[in-house]
Design a protein that fits this description.
The protein is built from 20 helices and 7 strands. With 418 residues, it is mainly alpha-helical. A 5-stranded parallel β-sheet has the order 3-4-2-5-6. Strands 1-7 form a two-stranded parallel sheet. Helix 2 (39-50) crosses helix 4 (79-105), helix 4 (79-105) crosses helix 11 (230-246) and helix 14 packs across helix 15.
Length: 418
């Protein structure tokens, strides 16, 4: 029997880390918050670890500076939180340096064409993970794996992928994450061989919604909403080209709600993208999202009130929907296929079949068998059941129904029954 899990179950339990935070508080009171989150210090650490000074361009500098300024002014991070954010940013820039170096040493990867990728742009908690996994079971398609996105260079090849030590290394990182924050295990599928959101590649340019899951940084969020995402898509495409050159695939399966913010840049980068917009009752979607992000942030901050983070992410969901609807107003008919969560979970294989038919394709018998096998074998709430209450965040489902009424009406989104 599995236990119900809420964001309140996310708390720092490690005694050494609690002691570290206490020491950090003393240092901060003395006027010296540690570790430093100075942008130049982070860039220097990345260059040292990557053993190269070449980041390819300066496009990362403005978002890095804006993000760190917001962290210092708005995030209320503990010492452990500062360590986590610093480590995340150093790791992202190391990946950027290594990716640029690999592309420079192997210029032939620039000839790789990313053709007609599946791109899932729905909000979190609308079935995007399930759909990504199912589409990726096609023998001619694949999604980036979580370990690949975390450690892409050198890109894994077919001959040695099964023995790559980075797989075990990422599993160790996952185990440490679950030990630190066991509540998260019930809320989001995590593991080295699972499909990863391609937003991870945006991290290399420090222009990504993913950064905001770690810290409450509203000023960075407002900047990101209007920022030019072209440099982030350049990193995104370069990563896919490197991975595809080493392990060829006919088609990629990509997903992140971040694409809804910037559909013109997405289509400029991938003009033949096959876009899928997943829809679900925004009441549970936004409430579940508020719970998830609070769970992620609670081990990095002493802020106990979940409402600021919840309100910020409710606003992000509304912004994404507005951007998607505005694009829909001007785009040619059929620019995307709309998939309702209720239909997806009721008949997952049938939903994939209908998507393929919409683009003039059929599901192969092998793909269908793989999807059916996965649906039989997938674990059900192995780490607990994620539960959430809108009252925790200062709203109600009727409030959210009114707030998102234009979206619900336009796409004929029925309320969740559960």
């Amino acid at each position: 029997m599995t236990a119900d899990v809420t964001f309140r179950d996310a708390r720092l339990r490690s005694r050494p880390l609690i002691a570290l935070n206490r020491l950090g508080e003393l240092s901060a009171r003395a006027g010296r918050a540690l570790p430093t989150l100075d942008p130049e210090s982070i860039v220097a650490a990345a260059r040292k670890r990557a053993r190269s000074d070449d980041l390819g361009s300066e496009s990362y500098r403005e978002p890095l500076t804006r993000y760190l300024r917001a962290v210092e002014r708005e995030a209320d991070l503990t010492t452990f939180g500062r360590l986590a954010v610093r480590g995340m940013l150093v790791g992202a820039l190391v990946n950027r340096i290594q990716l640029h170096g690999w592309a420079s040493a192997h210029p032939e990867i620039r000839d790789e064409r990313i053709e007609a990728p599946w791109v899932i742009v729905g909000l979190p908690r609308t079935g995007t993970s399930l759909l990504s996994i199912l589409l990726g079971l096609d023998p001619e398609a694949r999604a980036p794996l979580q370990w690949e996105a975390a450690h892409p260079i050198p890109p894994p090849g077919l001959a040695d992928e099964s023995q790559d030590p980075r797989v075990a290394g990422y599993q160790k990182e996952t185990d440490q994450l679950f030990k630190l924050n066991p509540a998260f295990a019930a809320m989001h599928p995590t593991g080295p061989m699972l499909a990863q959101e391609c937003v991870a590649f945006f991290m290399y340019d420090v222009r990504t919604l993913g950064l905001e899951t770690q810290a409450l940084v509203p000023s960075y969020g407002r900047w990101l909403e209007t920022a030019d995402m072209t440099p982030a898509y350049e990193q995104h495409r370069s990563a896919l080209q490197a991975l595809q050159a080493a392990k060829p695939t006919q088609r990629w399966v990509l997903k992140t709600p971040n694409h809804l913010w910037c559909l013109p840049e997405l289509l400029a980068c991938y003009p033949d993208a096959r876009i899928i917009w997943t829809h679900r009752d925004p009441g549970p979607v936004v409430t579940s999202l508020a719970s998830l992000v609070n769970t992620l942030q609670r081990v990095f901050t002493d802020r106990a009130d979940p409402r600021p983070t919840a309100q910020e992410w409710k606003g992000k969901a509304a912004h994404a929907i507005r951007c998607g609807m505005a694009f829909d107003d001007e785009a040619p008919e059929g620019w995307c296929v709309h998939v309702h969560y209720r239909d997806l979970v009721a008949d997952p294989v049938g939903a994939v079949r209908r998507i393929r038919e919409r683009f003039g394709e059929t599901v192969s018998s092998l793909h269908e068998r793989r999807m059916e096998a996965w649906m039989r074998e997938r674990p059900q709430t192995a780490f607990g059941r994620h539960v959430y209450d809108p009252a925790d965040f200062g709203w109600s489902y009727p409030d959210l129904a009114d707030e998102f009424s234009a979206y619900r009406t336009r796409y004929e989104i029925a309320p969740d029954e559960s």
